[in-house]
Write a structure and sequence with these properties.
Blueprint: E1 5-10, H1 20-27, H2 33-41, E2 45-47, E3 50-51, E4 63-68, E5 81-85, E6 89-94, H3 111-118, E7 123-124, E8 133-139, H4 142-150, E9 156-164, E10 171-174, E11 178-183, E12 187-192, E13 201-209, E14 212-219, H5 226-233, E15 244-245, E16 249-250, E17 265-273, E18 280-284
Parallel strand pairs: 8-17
Antiparallel strand pairs: 1-4, 2-3, 2-4, 5-6, 6-8, 7-8, 9-14, 9-17, 10-13, 11-12, 13-14, 15-16, 17-18
Helix pairs in contact: 1-2
Length: 297
C-alpha cells in the first residue's frame, strides 16, 4: 500500500451552477457518478478544504480536492543502475516493467521515486514507456534541467528494437504523422494519423532473424510511442506488441493498452552537449540479451 495522494483542480467557468457529483462525472468520465458520490459520502472530496455533498453547487475559482486513500500499486521492479553521474547529470538504466513517472495506478513504484530516494535533486528529463528498458537522463540542478529541456530536440537518441517482417532495405526513414486515433477501451490513443503532428524516425537493420529483424532507430521527434507507431505504420510492428498493428493504429481485435507488456524496445544511447561545459557527451546502456547481436553492442 502506498500513502495515498491528494489531487487538486481549480473549478473553471464551465462549472458555474453545476452540482458537484455531475461535474465530477463529466470531467473525469472514467469514474461513474455513483462512484464519485460514494467518495463524497466518505469525505474524500473537498471544496476549498471543506467536505461537500453531491448536490453542492460549484463556483468558478473554487479548489476541488480528491483525497485518494492509500491503494495497492501493481508489481514493478524496484531497482535501477547508475550509468553516469556528475554534479549536473545522472544517467540511469531503467528496467522493463518500471514506470518512469506516476500514472496508470502507479504513484510510488516509479523510477522517479527510486531515484529521488538516493538523490532528492534528480529530475528525469524524458520518459520511457513502462515496458521500454534503457537509458533515462536526469538533471541534478535547475540550470541543467532548463538548458537541456529547451534543447532536448537537439539530443541524439538511439533505440534498439525487434520488429516483425523483412524490410527490403537496410536503412529507411519513416515520416508518418502521429496524432490521436480511436481505441475501444480508452476512447483515444496516439497512432498514425494524417491529421497528426510531423514525426520522423530513421531505421537501420542490424540483424535479420526468422520472421523478424533487429534494428536501431534514431528519433528526430519525440512523439508518444513513436517507434512502436512508426515501425507498425511501415508494416513492421514490434514483435509481441499488444497494441499497435500494421498501419500504426490499434489492432482491430481487442487491442491492448499502451502500458501492456510484450514488445522489446530499449533506449540504447544519448548524444548531447553537456549543459555546463558544452563538451560532447555520449551515454550508452547495453541492451538486454534478446536485443543483442554477436558482433554489435
Amino acid at each position: 500500500m502506498n500513502r495515498g495522494y491528494s489531487y487538486d483542480a481549480r473549478v473553471g467557468p464551465e462549472a458555474e451552477g453545476h452540482a458537484l457529483s455531475s461535474y465530477l462525472a463529466t470531467r473525469w468520465p472514467h469514474t461513474t457518478r455513483e462512484e464519485w458520490e460514494e467518495r463524497i459520502a466518505h469525505r474524500q472530496v473537498l471544496l476549498d478544504g471543506t467536505p461537500a455533498t453531491p448536490a453542492t453547487p460549484l463556483r468558478p475559482g473554487q479548489t476541488l480536492t480528491w483525497q485518494r486513500p492509500p491503494w495497492s500499486e501493481p508489481a514493478a521492479p524496484q531497482a535501477f543502475a547508475v550509468l553516469y553521474q556528475d554534479d549536473d547529470l545522472l544517467a540511469v538504466a531503467k528496467p522493463a516493467g518500471l514506470p518512469t513517472l506516476p500514472g496508470a495506478g502507479f504513484l510510488e513504484r516509479t523510477l522517479l521515486s527510486l531515484v529521488r530516494a538516493s538523490d532528492p535533486r534528480a529530475v528525469p528529463l524524458h520518459r520511457l514507456g513502462r515496458f521500454t528498458s534503457g537509458l533515462v537522463l536526469c538533471a541534478r540542478t535547475v540550470e541543467a534541467r532548463v538548458r537541456l529541456s529547451r534543447g532536448w530536440r537537439a539530443v541524439e537518441k538511439r533505440y534498439r528494437a525487434l520488429a516483425t517482417g523483412a524490410p527490403a532495405r537496410e536503412a529507411f526513414a519513416i515520416d508518418v504523422p502521429i496524432g490521436t486515433v480511436p481505441h475501444p477501451r480508452l476512447g483515444t490513443v496516439h497512432g498514425a494519423s494524417i491529421e497528426g503532428r510531423e514525426s520522423r524516425s530513421e531505421v537501420t537493420v542490424r540483424e535479420r532473424r526468422q520472421g523478424a529483424f533487429l534494428c536501431d532507430v534514431r528519433i528526430l521527434t519525440g512523439r508518444p510511442h513513436q517507434i512502436r507507431i512508426h515501425l507498425a505504420a511501415a508494416g513492421h510492428p514490434l514483435v509481441g506488441d499488444p497494441l499497435y498493428g500494421a498501419g500504426g493504429v490499434p489492432l482491430s481485435d481487442e487491442p491492448g493498452l499502451p502500458g501492456d507488456p510484450g514488445y522489446l524496445l530499449h533506449a540504447a544511447e544519448l548524444r548531447l552537449a553537456h549543459p555546463r561545459t558544452g563538451e560532447d557527451l555520449v551515454l550508452r546502456c547495453a541492451p538486454p540479451p534478446l536485443l543483442r547481436t554477436e558482433t554489435l553492442p
